[in-house]
Amino acid sequence: MDYVQLNNGVKMPQLGLGVYKVTEEEIERAVKAALESGYRAIDTAQFYENEKALGNVLKETDIPREDLFITTKVWNSHQGYEKTLEAFDASLEKLGLEYVDLYLVHWPCPDFDLYIETYRALEKLYNEGKVKAIGVSNFNIEHLERLLKECDVTPVLNQVECHPYLQQQALKAFCREHDIHVEAWAPLMKGKLMEDEVIKTLATKHQKTPAQIILRWHLQNETIVIPKSVTPSRIKENIDVFDFALTKEDMEEIATLDRGERQGKEPNEMHLQ
């Protein structure tokens, strides 16, 4: 496993398991398979409604707490200073943890103009040691610019939709300039990239699966990735990407696939609920 160093010195696995909308029935099998395969980072959220189920699995593992990296996020319905603090306490209790490694603002929801005070609540949690690092999710450049101007703690990362069809080059450049890591959700475009001819050709060339080619591309772009799967064999396959490298030409070929195509909402279009 490769690790990245965040701007506050905390080390984070570059590849983790995403559990977006994974059911309580599925999460035990998925997380156990991930931990057995070498994953040490799990990404959940208040909105996913599976923090308690994840906490139950974490209680059973014999992996030391300090070796795990747990991320959760405050949902749009709980934006605002006091509501964010309440949401965090509820998440922490459900997870059964003494601290969270990374806490994120899930969406900026700029129409409601609450993301600054929401982030200030994250700063309070960070200063109190209840979280090891804080960041944001789905923030565009203009949201980040305002945050950097009005808040004290630079986010360690921005978790956004990113894959070969939506490469986020301008956002990545801005984040690099401000020492903010980019973390990709839907890094495999929810499976829609598996039939892309360029990806399939590279998979044949490297004797890897299309998913492994895409994840390797992310890693070589210094992006953190959290592929979601509930299938143990695929969970294992997704972490088996540290024994090969794409060439400069391979990377350039994948760069040509960018078409600005989203699976999720444009951040300015996401509202509180």
What does it look like?
- The protein starts with a strand and ends in an 18-residue tail after the last helix.
- A hairpin with a 5-residue loop joins β1 and β2 (about 10-15).
- It is of the alpha/beta class and about 270 residues long.
- The protein is built from 10 helices and 10 strands.
- Helix content is about 40%, strand content about 15%.
Supply the key terms.
about 270 residues; alpha/beta; eight-stranded parallel sheet; two-stranded antiparallel sheet; 10 helices; about 40% helix; about 15% strand
Secondary structure: number of strands? 10
Query: Helicity, in percent?
Result: 25-40%
| Dominant shape | globular
Q: What percent of residues are in strands?
A: 15-25%
Number of helices: 10
Biggest sheet: strands side by side, in what order?
3-4-5-6-7-8-9-10
Distance between the termini: 36 Å
Major beta sheet summary: 8 strands, parallel
Overall pLDDT metric:
96
Q: SS-based structural class?
A: alpha/beta
Order of helices and strands: EEEHEHEHEHEHEHEHHEHH
Radius of gyration based on Cα positions: 18 Å
- Low-confidence residue ranges: none
Concise overview:
With 273 residues, the protein is α/β, with parallel strands linked by helices. It contains 10 helices and 10 strands. It has helices at 24-37, 51-60, 81-95, 115-127, 141-150, 169-177, 197-206, 210-220, 232-239, 248-255; strands spanning 3-5, 11-13, 17-18, 41-43, 69-74, 100-105, 131-137, 157-161, 181-185, 224-225.
